[in-house]
Amino acid sequence: MNRTPLAALALVTALVTASAAAFGTQATAPQKNPQAFQFNVEVRVGSAQPQAVGLAVLPRQVVRVPMGSDLILEVNAPAQDNEPSLVRLLRGTDNLAQVLHESRTLAPASVARTLAYRVCGQSVTFISPAPPAVPSCG
């Protein structure tokens, strides 16, 4: 599989961010790439601490980030600024995932999208733009 240097950068950024999320730490902001679309997403399950990820996703790229035991954040970057990006929260595994929520956001690559999810049992709440603190369930 051949990758361009920019595609490799997006993959490395996503892997570093995913590793941080897997250990329950807050990821640092990804390095700016003028061609990449910026996503800052927080996922809070129940009353647990929220997991935050920052992603720089190149046009037409899809990135999946594990967000806890069985949740996956999927980000699909558009081909260009005037097209929406697709963000989905999934439950399950890469091969067999159920879509819990799907959102399309429209913003130029120069503007970071800030989104949040709150998962309370079987209920999923999508918040955009993300608040300073995602409320816990209860």
Strand ordering within the main sheet: 2-1-7-8
Low-confidence stretches: 1-30
Mean pLDDT: 81
The helicity comes to 10-25%
List the total number of helices.
1
Give the overall silhouette.
globular
Look at the helices and sheets and give the structural class.
mainly beta
Gap from first CA to last CA: 47 Å
Short description:
With 138 residues, this protein is mainly beta. It is 13% helix and 41% strand. It contains 1 helix and 8 strands; from the N terminus they run αββββββββ.
Question: What would you note in describing this structure?
Answer:
- By secondary structure, the protein is mainly β.
- The protein contains one helix and eight strands.
- It has a four-stranded mixed beta sheet. Strands 3-4-5-6 form a four-stranded antiparallel beta sheet.
- The N terminus is likely disordered.
Compile the SSE list and pairings.
Layout (H helix, E strand, L loop, with lengths): L4 H18 L14 E9 L5 E7 L4 E5 L4 E6 L8 E8 L4 E9 L7 E8 L2 E5 L11
Primary descriptors:
single chain, 138 residues, four-stranded mixed β-sheet, four-stranded antiparallel β-sheet
